[in-house]
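Need residues for this backbone.
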């Protein structure tokens, strides 16, 4: 199991990403515009400065997938939101509908 502080930190990042998503998207759109007009160039500079002032943990790239039950960061299965270890335990116990052990 992951430390509670690590799980809490990840939840905090998720909230920050959700809160700043619209603002970041608008600023990035300004930066990616291809116009060479002087007003646009000045707006790009302002957008770059505003983007740098936003908290780094509000960036989507900072998020890390973790198991929903144990908080394990590695071996994450997106389809189920669980780590491979937890998934196997639950599948063998019959707690995940439609999943059964294969053999051939």
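Answer:
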């Amino acid at each position: 199991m992951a430390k509670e502080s690590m799980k809490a930190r990840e939840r905090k990042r998720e909230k920050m990403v959700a809160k700043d998503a619209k603002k970041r998207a608008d600023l990035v759109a300004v930066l990616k515009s291809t116009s060479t007009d002087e007003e646009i160039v000045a707006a790009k500079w302002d957008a770059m400065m505003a983007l740098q002032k936003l908290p780094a943990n509000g960036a989507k790239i900072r998020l890390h997938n973790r198991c929903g039950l144990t908080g394990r960061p590695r071996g994450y299965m997106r389809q189920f939101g669980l780590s491979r270890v937890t998934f196997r335990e639950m599948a063998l116990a019959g707690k995940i509908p439609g999943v059964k052990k294969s053999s051939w």
